[in-house]
């Protein structure tokens, strides 16, 4: 029993030592927990502060967004005003041009200044308004301008009435009828002479054709001039017969289903090598005018019609078109692209089409997607986007 009591006492002493250590660790853990609680509270306070700052930033961002929206609305309003003013300026310029043209037709001279002296950047003539009255130089309200315009119109009507009241030349009508009768007689005489000349020319050509049938092929080959003439006329007749059809295909649309008109004329039909060839192209709704007076796009379409007509005579295996659509607008680009597509698509090459021409192969260099998206195959050239 004594030994057991000693063992139990030693065990109690060890347990007491363990209890002391556990209490120390408990105190240490409580201290650590208190420190962690204090730090957690501090972090919570910081989080609350950052939330407050975040709300303030969001409010400030919303204010900036509202200001940006207002500024964008103001810019759009100003741009609309600018567009409206530019439209008004264009209308005024157009009206001024109409007035200038009317003055030229009426042979009214307007005082003009040298643009070099005024250093004006605007195109067209610069007028000298210093000769007007001071009352006309002042800016007036629309009602005052309309009243002033009505006064001028009244003065013009009075002058026109005065001119009409003057005594006319009563013999002018008789002289006009006599000259008209003389002109008609001369015209009939000219037409008769031209018809007689044409009949004699046709007889001469028929005799000349029969004369060449009397020679052998070897003798005909010796006459280089005749061979050149026959070769030239064969090519010219073929091209002149096809150019109008091709030009109509290039210019026709839903609004103009008939298209334009194009034709070739020899300046000297008897000896074409001594003179030139006149090429005339009239786009839809346009009157007759020289080729030099056509726009760049109209000249391009006319040139393409001539190119395709020449190619239809003796087609080459293929040909290259290098940016022929540079001067064309979107509508003409679509027409030209559709024509080339109809002639070069699969099935058209090697077959006789409805207009009598053969299909062809072409390589087209173009920068317009409405043109090259109709191709059978594409080769794209572009910059290296990663390096660039």
From TrEMBL:
Residue ranges occupied by any RecF/RecN/SMC N-terminal domain in the UniProt entry: 57-383
Alphabetic keyword roster: Cell cycle, Cell division, Coiled coil, Mitosis, Nucleus
GO CC terms: cohesin complex; nucleus
GO molecular function terms noted in the UniProt entry: DNA binding
Predominant location: nucleus
InterPro entries in the record: P-loop_NTPase, RecF/RecN/SMC_N
Taxonomic superkingdom: Eukaryota
GO BP: cell division; sister chromatid cohesion
Location(s) in or outside the cell: Nucleus
Coiled-coil regions listed in the entry: 5-102
PANTHER family in UniProt: STRUCTURAL MAINTENANCE OF CHROMOSOMES PROTEIN (PTHR18937:SF12), STRUCTURAL MAINTENANCE OF CHROMOSOMES SMC FAMILY MEMBER (PTHR18937)
Record's protein name: RecF/RecN/SMC N-terminal domain-containing protein
Organism expressing this protein natively: Fagus sylvatica (Beechnut)
């Amino acid at each position: 029993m004594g030994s057991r009591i000693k063992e139990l006492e030693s065990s109690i002493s060890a347990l007491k030592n363990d209890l002391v250590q556990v209490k120390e660790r408990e105190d240490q853990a409580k201290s650590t927990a208190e420190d962690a609680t204090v730090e957690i509270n501090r972090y919570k306070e910081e989080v609350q502060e950052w939330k407050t700052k975040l709300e303030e930033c969001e409010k400030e961002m919303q204010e900036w967004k509202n200001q940006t929206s207002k500024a964008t609305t103001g810019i759009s309003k100003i741009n609309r005003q600018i567009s409206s003013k530019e439209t008004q300026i264009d209308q005024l310029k157009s009206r001024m041009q109409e007035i200038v043209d009317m003055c030229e037709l009426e042979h009214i001279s307007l005082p003009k200044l040298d643009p070099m002296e005024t250093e004006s950047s605007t195109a067209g003539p610069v007028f000298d308004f210093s000769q007007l009255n001071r009352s006309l130089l002042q800016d007036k309200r629309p009602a005052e301008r309309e009243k002033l315009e009505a006064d001028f119109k009244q003065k013009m009507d009075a002058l026109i009435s005065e001119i009409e009241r003057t005594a006319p030349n009563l013999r002018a009508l008789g002289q006009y009828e006599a000259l008209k009768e003389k002109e008609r007689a001369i015209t009939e005489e000219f037409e008769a002479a031209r018809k007689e000349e044409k009949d004699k020319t046709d007889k001469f050509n028929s005799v000349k054709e029969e004369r060449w049938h009397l020679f052998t092929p070897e003798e005909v080959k010796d006459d280089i001039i005749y061979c050149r003439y026959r070769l030239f006329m064969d090519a010219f007749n073929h091209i002149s017969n096809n150019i109008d059809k091709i030009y109509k295909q290039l210019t026709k649309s839903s609004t103009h289903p008939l298209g334009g008109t194009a034709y070739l004329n020899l300046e000297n039909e008897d000896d074409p090598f001594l003179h030139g060839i006149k090429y005339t192209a009239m786009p839809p709704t346009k009157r007759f005018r020289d080729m030099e007076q056509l726009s760049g796009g109209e000249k391009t379409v006319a040139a393409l019609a001539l190119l395709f007509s020449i190619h239809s005579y003796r087609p080459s295996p293929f040909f290259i078109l290098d940016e022929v659509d540079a001067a064309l607008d979107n509508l003409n680009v679509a027409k030209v692209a559709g024509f080339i597509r109809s002639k070069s698509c699969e099935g058209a090459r090697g077959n006789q089409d409805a207009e009598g021409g053969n299909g062809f192969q072409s390589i087209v260099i173009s920068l317009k997607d409405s043109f090259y998206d109709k191709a059978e195959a594409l080769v794209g050239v572009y910059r290296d986007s990663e390096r660039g």
